[in-house]
């Protein structure tokens, strides 16, 4: 399993930088600098994963086993 994610940072309009995580649809953000765009898209990724996790777990049966793992050590 690949334990990395990809962040694509591209120049946007009016001096902004746009950052996306291609592996995760919806993980998009922007910043005034490349560094800020990177930090913002990582925050977006964390929030998006938390939201999707909560939504997905609402439909899990009581008998299901739920395991959380860390991808990178």
TrEMBL record:
Gene3D superfamilies recorded: 3.30.160.250
Top-level taxon of origin: Bacteria
Protein name stated in the entry: Type II toxin-antitoxin system HicB family antitoxin
Organism placement in taxonomy: Bacteria, Bacillati, Armatimonadota, Fimbriimonadia, Fimbriimonadales
């Amino acid at each position: 399993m690949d334990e990395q994610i990809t962040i694509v940072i591209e120049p946007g309009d009016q001096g902004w930088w746009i950052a996306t995580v291609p592996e995760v649809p919806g993980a998009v953000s922007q910043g005034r600098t490349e560094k800020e765009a990177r930090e913002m898209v990582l925050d977006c990724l964390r929030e998006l994963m938390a939201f999707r996790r909560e939504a997905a777990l609402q439909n899990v049966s009581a008998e299901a086993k739920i395991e959380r793992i860390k991808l990178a050590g």
